[in-house]
Amino acid sequence: xxxxxxxxxxxxxxxxxxxxxxxxxxxxxxxxxxxxxxxxxxxxxxxxxxxxxxxxxxxxxxxxxxxxxxxxxxxxxxxxxxxxxxxxxxxxxxxxxxxxxxxxxxxxxxxxxxxxxxxxxxxxxxxxxxxxxxxxxxxxxxxxxxxxxxxxxxxxxxxxxxxxxxxxxxxxxxxxxxxxxxxxxxxxxxxxxxxxxxxxxxxxxxxxxxxxxxxxxxxxxxxxxxxxxxxxxxxxxxxxxxxxxxxxxxxxxxxxxxxxxxxxxxxxxxxxxxxxxxxxxxxxxxxxxxxxxxxxxxxxxxxxxxxxxxxxxxxxxxxxxxxxxxxxxxxxxxxxxxxxxxxxxxxxxxxxxxxxxxxxxxxxxxxxxxxxxxxx
Amino acid sequence: xxxxxxxxxxxxxxxxxxxxxxxxxxxxxxxxxxxxxxxxxxxxxxxxxxxxxxxxxxxxxxxxxxxxxxxxxxxxxxxxxxxxxxxxxxxxxxxxxxxxxxxxxxxxxxxxxxxxxxxxxxxxxxxxxxxxxxxxxxxxxxxxxxxxxxxxxxxxxxxxxxxxxxxxxxxxxxxxxxxxxxxxxxxxxxxxxxxxxxxxxxxx
Amino acid sequence: xxxxxxxxxxxxxxxxxxxxxxxxxxxxxxxxxxxxxxxxxxxxxxxxxxxxxxxxxxxxxxxxxxxxxxxxxxxxxxxxxxxxxxxxxxxxxxxxxxxxxxxxxxxxxxxxxxxxxxxxxxxxxxxxxxxxxxxxxxxxxxxxxxxxxxxxxxxxxxxxxxxxxxxxxxxxxxxxxxxxxxxxxxxxxxxxxxxxxxxxxxxxxxxxxxxxxxxxxxxxxxxxxxxxxxxxxxxxxxxxxxxxxxxxxxxxxxxxxxxxxxxxxxxxxxxxxxxxxxxxxxxxxxxxxxxxxxxxxxxxxxxxxxxxxxxxxxx
Lengths: 376, 204, 315
Known about the structure:
By secondary structure, chain B is α/β, with parallel strands linked by helices. Chain B has helices at 17-33, 53-62, 79-88, 165-173, and strands spanning 39-40, 69-71, 101-104, 129-133, 143-146, 154-156, 181-186, 189-193, 198-201. Chain B is 23% helix and 18% strand. Chain C is α/β, with parallel strands linked by helices. Chain C is globular, with a radius of gyration of 21 Å.
């Protein structure tokens, strides 16, 4: 062959895979990180990968993180691609987050709420000082956390129930039994988007993107004046009704983070004004994401609320089309693929334009000199 | 009143679901891409009484829980309905305009073509695909076809369809992109006529 | 078996202990895509929304083409995969390996032997024949997207055949540049009804689609659209009477096989402005060389080229 373009060929690809595997492993003198270690000690990464990967399996998410060398967007992609291959055998019943076994529950709306403000495991009030003790082998010496004197009530009522007797907070009308919720994993997006489609897209959406949109909203780009009604973290059970039994059985217990944002009040026709709300839900413990999602959910209800679509976070197509980091990453990075055929077409065009320009310039100079001669 | 299917006596569907459906689909795709040129579905299993092997094979390949199927009244509550529901896992649509697919085995009594889903202006792909069992793909009055997929023109002569079938169809497809898409079946053979095909009588 | 770390050097498919369903996709997904293909053929040029799945390859890297191929391919097919016209570009190799593994299918570089040709950004030089299926990888299925970012707006434009925006854009090119600026992904009208993007093929390839004997399928995985042009269908590149459509031409011939009239890639030989032009279609060029045709650079490897003797000069 006379020349080489971006022509890797079979061997180059195989070699690239081998090199990647070597870099992933790193220095062999250093102990290999285990999937169990990732699952236990990097659990917030695992939770994010499960949420955006749309697949609740902490071990698989940990494996994806290991294979992706810590690149969470890549790990999310791995988990999504795996999820595609899984058969669907049915649908669970809707999860009752009010029945959650709560480990953390706070509300900014009230000083105290039934069940109390339960801080739970949070970075919130830590001082962000690098702890060099953790750098030493075996440095993560953790004395057992003290046990509380009082037992948490089995069930902590959620913010909705606190408001319900006064009717201060809008309620969501449940859909009819016949209507199946939209499923983005099976159908493409359609616009205008229903709330079910929007919430699903946001739940799978990139945390960074939603964080930026929520932040922009708070800073005045389509503000909804959010107030954190409640954040709760805990375990909830997933139930399923097998055809043969005809009654629900619990098939899993999963960790969820739920956030309800109270927002600008609105009046529906013939009704007294109420608080409106935004809703956020993630697998595992992803507060930043749940809060951002709730703010953006409320922003996207602008259309139904008759609010002007005057900011990016209110623009349904803008938000939903660009929130999926698997799509975004693929498309941005596809620019690395060869584009030389289109580029050649472009180059030809540009050269032709330049040729025309120079020819026109030459001609006008010639005309000017002819005129000059004629004038003399 | 339907009783639970007698699974022991239920006829099988496709022998090798993956490979057979692939082969059958390629025939259907070829038929749709080349309207008026018939294709033979070699992997069609023997269906229950009432529908042709070609129609059965096509439905087993394309219909599932996401595509409501309108069923010819002649097949309702027969073994054919049980067979289709079981192997396809599909819902039966009683309203033709709610059907993604329609199986017509008694064309003389079929609803008007305009009763089926004609698609939407922005989503013309939602229109019904009609699978119509005819007595034969040849031997009827000649119809000349032109349009996408057809190298200049092709003549077909299916029998038997309702007398006003072609004029009904012309009406229904005159407002392209609305319309319905047809697959005529006889034995193991199919002949597709998408809404883009223009027809003219063969009598000249 | 993990596909991403697969170190196989040969193209031999694995024995029947395949971890995934035939051609990777599950049957339900294949059915959904197959239905979309049929409707696409019934409404030439119209973009059918479909439930595109995450594939082992990223969105933007050919998942639409891969899902189309996976939905139609069978053990009797012969599969060719090209990128920028060449069989041995890295992404084409990667996709061809994928199908050889998951679909137990024979692969080829020979255009005339292939039953399914998956391509990124080119149509091969050999005319396609009846019975062949050409599958295009499409990054942006919406021809009007560069002019109107909103899907709700563009879908309405197609529904009501309101394509004024496109013509205005071409007219603005003429005002600004004295000619229509589109060089790849040049918009076409299908059967005089739907405006379509032919994918980013160079406009050089547009005429091959008109009244073509093969089936043309277009897949956009990330944007989740499938569209099609049946055989023997009119495909017209947009233009104006006084600014008619024209394809690219070169002053040069292929430096390796001396072909005239094929699409040429520009190869930079040094940084003193020397360059040569070679066929983009690697199989076409290789076949001509095998038949004895030879261009001015035939037989040279890159390091042997003596640029001092070349006629080319820096632009």
